[in-house]
Amino acid sequence: VKTFPEGGFWKGKNYLFDRRMEQTPSIKADTSVENDINAKCCLCRTKWTVYRNQFKCNRSLCRVPVIVCDLCTTTATKKPETLICELCREGYRAPSAIPDLVSMKRKADKIVESNNTDGSKLSEKELLSKKPKTYYKDRLFIRRLPLAITFTKLKEVFGPIKFANWLTDKSSGGFYGSCVVVMNSATDMGKVLEMASTKGGIKIEKKKIKIAKVFVKDGEEDVFEVFNQKEYPPMI
Fold first, then answer.
1. Rounded CA gap, 192 and 158, in Å?
2. How far is residue 45's CA from residue 169's CA, in Å, rounded to a whole number?
């Protein structure tokens, strides 16, 4: 409505869930807005363009909001079973009971398990997804770092760090604020994680840093076996 004051392709009123109740194009005449609406009272079937009192369809679990005119408000309040939305009038049938999603999921899991016990082999990707993750005891993934960060600054903030591998964008080769660090020991890594879990966290230049443990990937080459530490991250 702000972008298209005359409504654009939108016709009629936009219902709002606050005290404004509805929103209409700001420079469109009220009569034009009313003429665009093809709504009617669900009881007497006369044209009515105002939704009030939160009346809902009473068919099964439908509960779709319905429009009731001022003259039919008393009837709708006393006999809510008479309220039927346009969808139900056209033949739509809502579920008669709320679906048990938990039970449905369990049945689906059993079907998957039974399919995997017929002698078929799981793919390598499926096997890896079922395998529990193993984490390094001395490595941390750090992100949201300032682009002007240095290895010296990292050691000042995080303490005893052996190495820091600056992560770069595959396309441009530029540093994007993340790195993997190797701590001197598991104890040092635990201290960093404990600091990061506090309310204030760890900040560099007033910016809160995000930290996570690094899990071991099968077949991945260890870049830290032969590593040349650089003071500055690569810039484009």
1. 6
2. 62
Q: How far apart are CA 55 and CA 181, in angstroms?
A: 59
Residues 168 and 230: beta-carbon distance below 8 Å = no
- Interatomic CA distance for residues 214 and 75, integer angstroms: 65
Checking if the pLDDT of 49 tops 60, the result is: yes
Spatial neighbors of 85 by CB under 8 A, at least 6 apart, are 42, 56, 57, 59, 62, 64, 65, 66
Whether residue 176 contacts residue 168, with contact meaning beta carbons closer than 8 Å, is answered with yes
Given a cut of 80, whether residue 96 has pLDDT beyond it is no
**Helices marked H in 79-177:** 86-89, 101-116, 124-130, 151-158
Answer whether 0.70 is exceeded by the pTM. no
For residue 35, give every residue at least 6 positions away whose Cβ sits within 8 Å of its Cβ, in sequence order, or none: none
More confident residue, 120 or 230: 230
Give the whole-angstrom CA distance, residue 85 versus residue 60: 12
How far from 119 is each of 113, 116, 129, CA to CA, in Å? 11, 7, 19
Strands, E assignment, the chain: 14-15, 22-23, 135-143, 161-168, 175-183, 203-204, 207-208, 210-215
pLDDT in tens, 58-80: 887 888 899 999 999 999 999 99
Residue whose structure tokens are 């529990």: 132
